[in-house]
Amino acid sequence: MSMFLDTAKIQVKAGNGGDGMVAFRREKYVPNGGPWGGDGGRGGNVVFVVDEGLRTLMDFRYNRHFKAQSGEKGMTKGMHGRGAEDLIVRVPQGTTVRDAETGKVLTDLVENCQEFIVARGGRGGRGNIRFATPKNPAPEISENGEPGQERELLLELKVLADVGLVGFPSVGKSTLLSVITAAKPKIGAYHFTTIVPNLGMVRTHSGESFAVADLPGLIEGASQGVGLGTQFLRHIERTRVILHVIDMSASEGRDPYEDYLAINKELESYNLRLMERPQIIVANKMDMPESAENLKVFKEKLAANYDEFAELPQIFPISSLTKQGLATLLDATAELLDKTPEFLLYDESEMEEEAYYGFDEEAPAFEISRDDDATWVLSGDKLEKLFNMTNFDRDEAVMKFARQLRGMGVDEALRARGAKDGDLVRIGKFEFEFVD
Q: What are the residue boundaries of the Obg domain, all occurrences included (predicted)?
């Protein structure tokens, strides 16, 4: 079984903030000591860090839940609780992180040691020392810690390579990679010998170097899910130059020019941007008897069907077995890489806007709905956050929450919707009676 994994769905949960404390000074010689409860500590963030030593997302195959520690509760003598350590999750270079609910791209992690906070920990709740006022010098009020952010993420690995080898199965991509790099891919005389991407580093005679990826063979319909190609077409997206390998000997009875058109069609169908990448046509297996004549016909068809104002792609006849023409091919590839910029993988519509962890001023503070059992249901980010941070074990905190609801206009809105004295109102799993 292959140990290569390039997609994963995981759940992350940042730590909750620690609860604030209700405490009072009780020293013998300190009259009217007052409140003395400290704030809770900050919950830990979940942080993705790029590790260049990782090559696949295999670590996420069985471990799909990541939860950071919560902050410590506030303590007496006004001492804050300890903040929790961030949870560090290591990912390979080239990992794209998406929000599973919205499909938006959160980040694209390509640099070694690059960090990104995927879930932020909640702030600590305030202790009663924070609520002292001249009118209420000894408050019995504290806040619960803010809940940490929780989300489901889609991870997608796109191999980091400057050059990608594409073509039909058994055209010689793996053999080519094995002779131009130190990589040792599995090579066999049957289709789909390569079932995972293989990477290798090339160094030319002039000292230039670049990374090459040998991708599993494509067949017609790969962009719609036929064969193995649909799983690995994503890895071509990061490449800047495509080496289009063609079996010029036509050993399997296919027309080399039709092969060329078919593969380009699959690349275009998968992602139109792939056609922006410059291509070099690699006419392989030129040591075979029919190859020279087939190459001549291929060039004629290519020229006849190409736009007269467009620049024809370069064609390099090679033989991976005899190593004929490899030096010229590699030099031309290095030269093309030097003048080819990196391509933008995602446009602004695919990227999530910079995260904002406060309240959206334009969003409604609460929403009211009616459950099947005639209970009024209150929801909304602002209201639910106030509810979660209220310590319902303290009467003063409960009264404070009631005043906050009234100040938000919840009472008036319920009354306008037809709520009557004694009706049940629910927030989450908590229920109380509406008092008119």
A: 2-160
Contact predicate 194/218, CB 8 Å: no
Binding annotation for GTP: 167-174, 192-196, 214-217, 284-287, 319-321
Asked whether residue 107 carries a pLDDT value surpassing 80, the answer given is: yes
* Binding site per annotation, positions: 167-174, 192-196, 214-217, 284-287, 319-321
pLDDT of residue 136: 92
pLDDT at 228 over 70: no
Give the global pTM: 0.83
Detail the residues annotated as belonging to a binding site for Mg(2+): 174, 194
Q: How confident is the model at residue 406 (pLDDT cuts 50, 70, 90)?
A: very high
Mean pLDDT of 155-182: 91
pLDDT higher than 70, residue 53:
yes
One-letter amino acid at 418 equals G
